[in-house]
Specification:
seven-stranded antiparallel β-sheet; four-stranded antiparallel β-sheet; globular; Jelly Rolls
Length: 301
Amino acid sequence: MHEDTGENLSFVEGFGLSNAPLIVTKPVREAEFSVAHLTCRLKSDSPQLVFLPSQDCFFVMLYLDDTRHCDVAPDGRESAVRRYRKGSICLVDLAKGASIRLHDTLHALVFLIPYHLLGEVSEFSKAPGATMLRCLRGEHDEVMWNMGKALLPLFAQHQNQRSCVLGHLAVAVCAHLLHVHGDTSVRGRSLPDLSIWQEKAAKDFMADHFREAVTPDMVAKAVGMSEDSFVRAFEISARKTPDQWLSEYRITQAKRCLSEHEHGFEDVATLCGFRDLAHFTEEFNSITGISPMRWRNRWLN
């Protein structure tokens, strides 16, 4: 594994931050993995245009704090300004470049992952036949959040200190993205009826109302679709049903409550939208493989 810094600045300079902390490494063979730690503050509260040049790469942004921005099309048209939650990711194919306009301070880890690197990693990962990724907007990803937290201390370390850990984390990031967000679509197969914006709107609705008794019909209405069409399209696009996605999101929120040790188990169940303690325990066991009590004990110890 080879490591270097400061040589792959184009995707950082697009944010107007040429001096942002940046790490570049070759974790497998020749393809580079780049990650930068950005804090981009608006000047005079004016929205800031960000331009990312065309490259044979995927761009991944892991939000370290909530923010708002919009997409900017090649003809200059701008999408609606949308909120992006702390702990979520955006995944963009840079084949034709990309532009966004920031409407809030941006605090994020940004990754540049070449197609070639995904190919190198896919040779030994367990991703289901994927060598490319699906584009996503504001996707909650607990694994990326945890790996991002592991990467942050490396920016303060000397190259020799972080080399081994960085290489393993770079491969882990790529393998995870291929496994969870890999594009295994077959050429010629009809595309799902759910756009990336409808998928984001559906997940945002569920995240906003996760403490409530959310039904697929409620989510379908929020994105302007019939329930049957929405459930079918969501499952194709997200590779899980709306109920499964919501359960996993609730368990992630429950873990945060359990790690704080301020709430009893019944309180956590209520705060995170479960019907009762039995329902919470059953879902927690199903998704994590252990009980909430065992998970909390492991976390605290």
